[in-house]
Each structure stands twice: as structure tokens, then as C-alpha cells.
Amino acid sequence: MPVRKIFGSCATKPKRTVFFSVCVNGANVAFAASQVAGSGIKVAAVVGFPLGAMAKEVKVFEAVQAVKDGASEIDMVINIGALKSGDYDLVEQEILEIKQAIGDNVLKVIIETCYLSDGEKAKACGLAVNAGADFVKTSTGFGTGGATPDDVGLMKKAVGGQAQVKASGGIKNLADAQKYIEAGATRLGTSSGVEIVQGLQAEEGKY
Fold it and tell me: pTM for the complete prediction?
């Protein structure tokens, strides 16, 4: 899979590098949508960022508003405290209600792996699949750690082909990008997308 085609990037000038999407906060969705209109690049909006500790109803409203403003993908943070407390019904119901509220738009569920045990990571992935999420995602980039290849592999196994995996957090160069793709990620989130694509272009120029 070509590296550049699977980026969801926060990089500047996304149209120059043909990224899959640009990911922004809710307040910037309408502006981002106006800037990429006609390019084929999608707008993703974060919800419950970065701690996931908002009331469920607030997250649902935030997701719906982002879609109204032009987002076609939602990257939501789970209620991490609820997961770690064993309140799995709350976690799953929240994901389900957001997915139902945004309809056919893509939902990515950020589980923030740096705060979870391997068992909790697998459980979170299972809850996301049960609720109809399209992706599970490693990280917000604001936690104590980002993606790791081991976590991507664990998450890919946990979803059992019923959702895709997005790696995000700490992906800085082409070698990192290729490592996560090989581990099973089908989408990468990075603020270094331009640099990574430039590295790819340099590699391609050698052959």
C-alpha cells in the first residue's frame, strides 16, 4: 500500500502531498473543509479530545456538529477512566451512540494505548467493534506515549478484521511509517506527513 495514500495528517498544505485527510479540532472544521473542497481530501474532526472525559451527550453533540460543518470522519477518544474502572457498558454505548449519530461517516475510536494494559487494549478494541466503529486508533499524541508496532499488531488481532487500525503519535519519518504499515496499520496520523512523503520521494528517486 503506498505510504502517502494512508495518511491522516495535521500537516500544512495537505493538497500538495495528496494526503487522505486533514485532522483538525471542531472549531476549525468549516475552514478546513473550505480549503480542501474539490481536492478529494477529507476532513476529520477530533471529539472528546484529548482526555475523553466529557459527558456522552457532549461528545455526541460535538460529533454531529463537526459533520454539519463538513467533517466526514470523526476521531473520538474513549472514556479512559470508565474503561479502566470496568464500566464497559458505558464505553460501548458511547461509541455506539456517536456512530449512530454520524451515520455513514467514518468513526475512529482512540483508545490511548499508553494508559492501558494489553488486556485493556484488546477489550477496548472489542467494544469498538461491537459498537460498529470503522477504526481503532492508538493515540491522541497528547498522552505519555504514542503508537508502537506491538500495539498495532495487538489491535489488529483484537479487531479480527472487523475494523481497521490507525497508528498515531510519534511517527516522524519514512522508516517509522513503513514499520507501522508492516505491523498492520491502514491509516497513519502524523504532523510530519510532508517530511515523510519527501523521504519517500527521495527513496523512489534512487531507483
Answer: 0.90
The active-site residue, picked from 42, 75, 123, 156, is 75
Q: pLDDT, tens digit, for every residue of 95-114?
A: 999 999 999 999 999 999 99
CA distances from 60 to 12, 28, 48, 69, 187 (A): 28, 18, 9, 14, 24
166 is catalytic: yes
DSSP string over 1-42: --GGGGEEE--S-GGGTT-SEEEE-GGGHHHHHHHHTTTT-E
Report the candidate in 38, 44, 51 with the shortest Cα–Cα distance to residue 10: 44
Provide the phi-psi class of 108: left if phi over 0, else alpha when psi is between -120 and 50, else beta: beta
Q: Which three cell numbers stand for residue 93?
A: 454505548
Q: Would you call 75 a catalytic residue per the annotation?
A: yes
Tell me the per-residue pLDDT of 121-142, one tens digit each, with 9 for 90 and over.
999 999 999 999 999 999 999 9
Average pLDDT (62-86) is 98
Nearest alpha-carbon partner for 157 in 181, 186, 184 = 184
Among 147, 146, 165, which residue's Cα sits nearest to residue 155? 165
Catalytic residue among 99, 137, 156, 176: 137
Give catalytic status of residue 118 as yes or no.
no
Bridge partners for 9 per DSSP? 22, 190
Q: Are 106 and 72 in contact (CB under 8 A)?
A: yes
